[in-house]
Amino acid sequence: MTQYIPFSKRHCTCSSSRSCHSDPSPSLAAKARYSNPKLSTPAPDLPTPSTCLAHSSAARLEIEKVAKLILASKRCVVVSGAGISCSAGIPDFRSSSGLFSTLKEQHGNHINQGRDLFDAQLFNSETTTRIFHQFIGQFKQSIENVQPTPTHQFLSWLHSQGRLTRWYTQNIDGLEAKTGLSPPTHLHPSYPCTPSRISRDHKSTVVPLHGDLDQLVCPLCSTYYPFTPAFFSSYQQGEAPICPHCAKLNDNRLEAGRRPISVGKLRPNIVLYNEPHPSGELIAKVMNTDVRLKPDLLLILGTRLNVHGCKALVKAMARTVRQQKHGKIIMVNLDPIQSKEWDDLIDIQVLGPADDLI
Predict the structure, then answer these.
(1) Which CATH number covers residue 228?
(2) Where is the active site (predicted)?
(3) I need a labelling partner for 34 at 20 to 30 A (CA). Which of 218, 260, 302, 306 fits?
(4) Residues 6 or more apart from 238 whose CB is under 8 A from it?
């Protein structure tokens, strides 16, 4: 059975007049810095948590246990969602103030729900295509200077200690790369990928399950380009920029007196609903490699696991972790997942922001 631990003011039922965050517990980073002198690199100096443990000494003791489990792990696999980026000012998708609700409010005359702007069917309409491009341009510009959160920093530190086996992220904001952990080049379909190559590549720690906004790709020639500010204005005007590679090939043909060819338009390197994942097989190889590495901790952060592919990944990884002698599955999220589907898989659900636990 899953154990639930309240860890935020949302779940606090205390009637005391004392401030809810007057007695915060030591963070994971603090425990790592002061409790384990053998660590090769000090844990990052992160902010004091903004919330406490609902004034429950029993809950504090349980969080102490959770901290020890995380810090004792030698092969940790992380699955993260939009919740870990909220403190950086990036909205999540599904909450009442999230992107889906905002997009529905702004474009309700053209879409049934905000999710429709992340569905491949949007390209069937010129109107929704233009709205999608405008949103991408505005969103990319809004996150350009956003910095990683304490959670991102802590996971990067775990990697520096050799304890982070893999970090599967559902986010497209690219904050993982700003900590120094870049997505692997072998997740591009043109890159030869084998399990041995994956396990040797120290930069393959982060696996973007839904792509990222760091790159643009041409659907025709599969050429990738960095999503630099030079492309912002085109998207903000509702137009996808043309592919420079295709345009050059076409110009060369015309100069040679040959027939013109189609010129592709760049699209964000993200995976939408109802379209095949271009790196699906490669991600499956990464997962199989991780299973063979026998992770002893699965850490699920800032997600309710609503996306089918991510849910399947977590279930497969959880079964592997459970087979280890002291394997644990820990979830940290504002809202609990309460269903029989997860009761036999998730050991502990900490109800609160990941930053506050860290």
Answers:
(1) 3.30.1600.10
(2) 210
(3) 302
(4) 129, 130, 131, 133, 134
Sheet holding 224-226, edge to edge: 224-226, 211-217, 267-270
Annotated binding site: 218, 221, 243, 246
Q: Exposed, middle or buried, 194 (CB in 10 Å: 0-12/13-18/19+)?
A: exposed
Rg of the chain in Å (alpha carbons): 22
Q: Which domain holds residue 240?
A: 99-144+214-270
* Binding-site positions for Zn(2+): 218, 221, 243, 246
In angstroms, the Cα distances linking 27 to 60, 208, 234, 330 are: 11, 27, 44, 16
- Which of 231, 249, 270 marks a domain boundary? 270
Task: Give the lowest-confidence range in 81-95, 98-112, 223-237.
Answer: 98-112
Residues in the chain: 358
CATH of the domain at 291: 3.40.50.1220
The DSSP H or E segment spanning 297 is strand 297-301
CA–CA distance, 155 with 97 (Å, rounded to integer): 27
User: What is the β-pairing status of strands 328-333 and 348-351?
Assistant: parallel
Residues 11 and 72 in one domain: yes
**Alpha-carbon gap, residue 274 to 297, rounded angstroms:** 31
- pTM equals 0.83
d(CA 169, CA 95): 19
Q: Flag whether pLDDT at 33 surpasses 60.
A: no
Q: What's the gap between Cα 57 and its chain centre?
A: 32
pLDDT digits (tens, 9 = 90+) for 256-302: 999 999 999 999 999 999 998 888 888 898 999 999 999 999 999 99
